Amino acid sequence: MNSINLLSTAGTKPAAPSPKPPDNPALRKAFDQFVGQTFYGQMLQSMRKSQTKSAYFHGGRAEEVFTQQLDQALTKKLSETSAGKLSGPMYALFTQQRK
Question: In the 3-class helix/strand/coil scheme, how is the chain assigned residue by residue?
Fold first, then answer.
């Protein structure tokens, strides 16, 4: 069996490393912002819809407006800090397709 394994791998060439796509910081930043804001924005929006309004502690329309502003600020901050982890693999595929 060892001779079969040696013969089957002896004729193959090692895979050449794929060329690294050119870095474009502006494109990467825009990509991170879009992916992060889309993902986190939808996540927070779904979370807010699943909450029930209490009869005594709901602040009415003013609370809804400020909650939307809070969600926008949270989405922006979450996008800045951790969107790169989400969008890294997507950005790599996006830049490979643009070649």
Answer: CHHHHHHHHHCCCCCCCCCCCCCCHHHHHHHHHHHHHHHHHHHHHHHHHHCCCCCCCCCCHHHHHHHHHHHHHHHHHHHHHHHHHHHHHHHHHHHHHCC
Q: How far apart are CA 36 and CA 58, in angstroms?
A: 29
- For 25, phi then psi, to 5°, come to -60, -35
pLDDT digits (tens, 9 = 90+) for 35-93: 888 999 999 999 999 988 887 888 888 888 899 999 999 999 998 888 888 888 888 88
* CB atoms closer than 10 angstroms to residue 16: 6
Q: What is the C-alpha to C-alpha distance for residues 74 and 43, in angstroms, rounded to an integer? A: 11
Quick check: 80 and 34 in contact, CB under 8 A? no
Distance CA 94, CA 23 (A): 12
What does the domain layout of the chain look like in residue ranges? 23-49+62-99
